[in-house]
Structure formats: structure tokens, C-alpha cells
Amino acid sequence: MTERTLFISRKRGPGRGRWVTAWQILGHWLARLAIGLTILGLLGWGGASLWYAWRFSGAVAAVEEIPEGEAAMTQDVIQTAIRIVDRFRTDTRYLRDAHAKAHGCVRAQLEVASDLPAQWRQGVFSEPGKTWAAWVRLSNGNAYPQFDKLSDARGMAIKLLDVPGTQLLGSQQARREQDFVMFNHPNFFVSDVAEYRQNVAAQADGKRALAFFPSWDPRTWQIRHLLIAFATLSKAPDSPVDATYYSVSPYRFGPENAKFRVVPEPSACPAYTLPKMNRDQPNFLRDALFQQLSADRQPACFALQVQLQDPNRYMPLEDTSVAWKESDSPFHTVAHLRVAPQDFDTPEQNLACDDMRFSPWHGLEAHRPLGGINRLRKAVYEAVADYRHARNAQAQ
Question: Which of 61, 103, 122, 163 has the highest local Cβ count within 10 Å?
Fold first, then answer.
């Protein structure tokens, strides 16, 4: 090494060492910051978990508690729902304000369990072995039709036919129906009518952030409900008949309060494997339903189950954001739903499907809907159905 090279090396050495030392100090500082933030996050998560465990515990009311001003808020929601219907109408049809896209309406049979214990023999489930003819509508949750592969809620609505007895709604006495309206998550992303009004208004105005963060005040932020919404908007199942569907809101079940769900019951049907569907097709869920029922002529089977409320546990009637724990009250199978092979995807049946009205208020006193969200549905479903049916009739 020459004297000049040695001089340059010595000149650069201390400066480079200072840079290495600075980076080491910064690295140590960042590592400590990361550890501190992790510990702070864990403490926050633990504290929040303890708070929620305390908040969502204890006895609850076994009767409805209607808050002041709910009727006025319901009228606001009706106007917002009609705005949504107007906004997403097609060239020829006014669609539903939610669950606008159907994968199909199919004929089915609901058979009450033949060995049903006396406690569970309520309403349409009063007679073991009784078979009801039914329609089943399977759908996406969005207010406008979109590709099935996109994250969305999925819905199932069941309509039992020729049900004797006095209907809940005076205007529906001639229909003789019992509806069960469900979607594929056990709890809802809003608690009550007030939150629903604020949430749906923000989304209708295209201000989705305000749906869960209505102001700068952190006390108004609905982070838990946002997480429920993300969980609800999940990846599409391989077929609409592969999902589990929940009533979310509570109902009467004879003298008690309950929630419903429908779960796939493959053991009640012949073994069947659905061929792989092309999920890039916009209507691949309808394609899957057609493949099973129409092309391969294979039935689909479900169990309809009931979960009774235990008021000594945190199983509230008025807060649909709370899922009732199965450890507090297990589900019990009361009936079996069978969808037979059939040709359902015809223009006539698809139009009839779009015209069908489903509401939890179509039914008997033994299954009366409970809670604020169900009271909201009573007014909104009827008003929106009347609105869109009137306009569709004018367009024909």
C-alpha cells in the first residue's frame, strides 16, 4: 500500500465508523420503539378485551325495550332506502335496497323433525313430521348487482306456504306464509335503529368512512362494528348451498325468545362433489346452483336450528351486534330443509323471484320478530316493497 493510499484510508475510516455507529444507535432505538409499541398494543388489546368481557356480560331483559324517537328514525331510514332503490335501478327494474342480486329462487320442502321434543314444538314446528312447501331465495347482500367473487354478505330467505293461522300483519291475512330471513354471519354491524340510520345514510351518500367514524370524537367511533362488517364481507363460498345462514335478530319461539340459523346438512343428501366453478364469471354462484340442481340433478340439504335465549346470560334482544354464545345456549335442530333437483333458471321464474316479498313480519304470532332492527324491518320492508312494485308495474 502506498503512503497516499494509507493516508486516504485513515482519513475515511473515522467518518465511516461514525456512520456505522449512528445506524446502530438508530437501529437500537427503532427496536426499542417497536417493542414498546407492541407492549402498548398488547396492553390495549388486553384492556379492551377485559372491558368488552365486562360490558357484554350479565343478565338482560327478556322483553323489548323501545327507545324514544325510534319511529322518527325509522321514517328517515325509509327515505334513505328509497333513495338507494332510485340510485341503483336498472333500465327496466327497480331492485331491492339490499340483497338486490339473487342467485335463484328454488322450490324446497321443510320437514319438521319427527322426534322433536315437546319444548321445541312451537308455531310451524308444532307437528313432528309435518312437511311444508317452501320457496328459498339465495342472494348477495349488496344494494346493486356485482361480481360474485367480490366480498359481500350472502343471504337466504325461506317462505313457507299455506300456513294456517292469523298473520302478524293485517294486510297479509290472505298470504298464509311464514318467512325466515337470514344472512351468513351471526351478528350485525350495527346495534340498533339509531346506528343503522347513521350507517346507511353515510353509505348512501358515498361517505363510507362516516358509517363507522361519524365524527372526530373517538367516543363515537365504532371500531368493533367495523370489524364485524369486515368479517361479514367475506370471500364467496363455492356455492350458495355451502354457507350457514343466521337470523341475526331475535324472534318469539312460542313462550320463549330465540334466534334461528340454517346449516348445510350433507349427511341428509346423497354424496355429491360440486365441480370446480370459474370464480371469475360474474354469476358463478348462480352457475354453481344450476350445476348442482339442474345439470347434475343433485339435491341440497340443510338443518334449521333454534337457539333459545337465556336472560341470565348476555343474550340481548335489542343489540344485533352481539352474537349469542353457543356455550350459553346451544342450537337445536327442529326441521330439515331439502331443495330437490329442479330447473329454476328461467326468465319467468327469475322475474317471479324478483317480485317476491320476504319479511320477518310475514308469519305467525308464535314467531313474532323482536328488537329494534326487526321493528325497523317491519316499516322499511313494506314501504320499499310497495315503492318498487308500483314503479315496476308502471314500467311494464
Answer: 103
Q: What is the pLDDT of residues 244-265, one digit of tens each?
A: 999 999 999 999 999 999 999 9
Domain 70-395 adopts which CATH fold?
Catalase HpII,  Chain A, domain 1 (2.40.180)
Domain ranges for the chain, please list them. 1-55, 70-395
* pLDDT higher than 70, residue 187: yes
